[in-house]
Automatic annotation (TrEMBL):
Keywords: DNA-binding, Transcription, Transcription regulation. The lineage of its organism: Bacteria, Bacillati, Actinomycetota, Actinomycetes, Pseudonocardiales. One of its GO terms (molecular function) is DNA-binding transcription factor activity. CDD domains: WHTH_GntR. SMART domains: FCD, HTH_GNTR. This is GntR family transcriptional regulator. It comes from the Bacteria. It comes from Amycolatopsis decaplanina DSM 44594. Residues 1-66 form the HTH gntR-type domain.
Length: 223
């Protein structure tokens, strides 16, 4: 998928497919790259998330820009929307979870990080990732936080899949998730807040790198 997306992205940015032109069909692209239509479909979703194309039902995929947008969309929410909400919700939520979590919460979080370490299927990992963040919100003891994360669950899953496929984020995310759980298990509000802050900064930097490959992202002091 990464190879197909990289090729199509390069072709669009070079002008091989000008704005307004229709891309070859999924079937034709599958034959050209010798991959399944599901792989092509994922690559096309990546192009759309980058803001390079738009898919029109029954008509195909059309080029809309020669370069990626700085604020890609995932479902009904933009990356900027998601990061803004996550910074103001998930960071304090991690702190609340550290002082309010139950034994059951810790058991589930431990189980989730173990499964994520072993999971090789990207779709399954993304589902576990969503459940991980929802579980932390529920562990805060405030049901409203859980509802907020549930509302953006689909967008978070799309963004997570995008970052895993194009930014190779999965292994690093597993490490960051363990750091968050360790802080919550220790009951340290400050450490949980710091761990979640670091995680979200790495996610945001990874997305920036994908959208603007030549852009040098800032690194936080813990890198």
């Amino acid at each position: 998928m990464e190879a197909v997306l990289a090729h199509l992205r390069g072709a669009i940015e070079r002008g091989d497919y000008p704005v307004g032109q229709k891309l070859p069909s999924e079937s034709a692209l599958g034959k050209e790259f010798e991959v399944s239509r599901s792989v092509v479909r994922e690559a096309l979703r990546g192009l759309q998330a980058l803001g390079l194309t738009v898919s029109k039902t029954g008509k195909g995929t059309f080029v809309t820009a020669t370069g990626p947008v700085e604020n890609p969309t995932f479902g009904t929410y933009s990356a900027r929307d998601l990061f803004e909400v996550r910074r103001h919700v998930e960071i304090p939520v991690a702190g609340y979870a550290a002082v309010r979590r139950s034994t059951d919460d810790l058991d589930l979080l431990g189980h989730l990080v173990e499964r994520m370490d072993l999971e090789t299927d990207n779709t399954a990992w993304v589902a576990l990732d969503s459940l991980f963040h929802i579980t932390i919100a529920q562990a805060s003891g405030n049901p409203v936080f859980g509802k907020v994360i549930e509302e953006i669950r689909d967008a978070l899953a799309r963004q997570s899949s995008f970052l895993n496929q194009l930014g190779d984020r999965r292994t690093r995310s597993n490490t960051e998730h363990r750091e968050i759980v360790t802080a919550i298990a220790a009951g340290s509000e400050a450490d949980a807040v710091a761990a979640m802050t670091s995680h979200l900064e790495h996610v945001e930097n990874a997305l920036t790198t994908i959208v603007r490959p030549s852009h040098t992202t800032h690194q936080n002091k813990d890198d």
